């Protein structure tokens, strides 16, 4: 339920002014703002110079209107620069802090050296590891303190006592069982 059917609006701010509130209407995808999807929009505006912040939010209407936004990347066709605005939060009246709009400042590459490489590694790691968190899997973590396993079951049960007789010793393990 990380996507939204609500109307999404953005205001872009640069050194020469702002766009005002613009609804994001036509994505290159048939359905916009779906979980795990990257949507691309064209927004026409005068050249704002270097961008420093955006305000993005939705109107809160429609079923399933809560939205988890990872990030926004704005590509400036004049300067060929990319501006990244990290969010990684909910825009949802029932989640996080209850806000359905966020003010995001630009992530400056000079402030975060290697940021693109870190983002790529994060995405690669998640792509490799997300299978572990699929519905129906049970997670087992070895607990070095108790010398047993902590089990997280698909039905939300947690067995924190674990099995102290497990043959795998004192090394950290994580197993997945379907």
TrEMBL record:
SUPFAM superfamilies attached to this UniProt entry: Lipase/lipooxygenase domain (PLAT/LH2 domain)
Gene3D superfamilies listed in its UniProt record: Catalase core domain
Pfam families: PLAT
Ranges of residues in domain PLAT: 1-105
Name of the molecule in the record: LOXH1 protein
Organism whose genome encodes this protein: Phaetusa simplex
């Amino acid at each position: 339920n990380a996507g939204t059917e609500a109307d999404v609006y953005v205001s872009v701010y640069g050194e020469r002014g702002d766009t005002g509130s613009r609804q994001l209407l036509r994505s290159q995808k048939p359905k916009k703002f779906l979980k795990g999807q990257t949507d691309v929009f064209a927004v026409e505006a005068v050249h704002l110079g270097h961008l420093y912040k955006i305000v993005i939010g939705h109107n809160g209407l429609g079923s399933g209107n809560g939205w988890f936004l990872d990030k926004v990347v704005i590509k400036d066709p004049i300067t060929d620069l990319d501006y990244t605005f990290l969010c990684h939060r909910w825009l949802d009246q029932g989640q996080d802090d209850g806000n359905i709009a966020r003010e995001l400042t630009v992530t400056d590459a000079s402030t975060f050296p290697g940021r693109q490489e870190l983002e790529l590694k994060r995405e690669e790691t998640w792509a490799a590891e997300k299978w572990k968190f699929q519905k129906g899997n049970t997670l087992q973590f070895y607990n070095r303190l108790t010398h047993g396993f902590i089990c997280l079951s698909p039905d939300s049960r947690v067995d924190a006592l674990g099995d102290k007789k497990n043959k795998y010793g004192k090394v950290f393990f994580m197993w997945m069982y379907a």
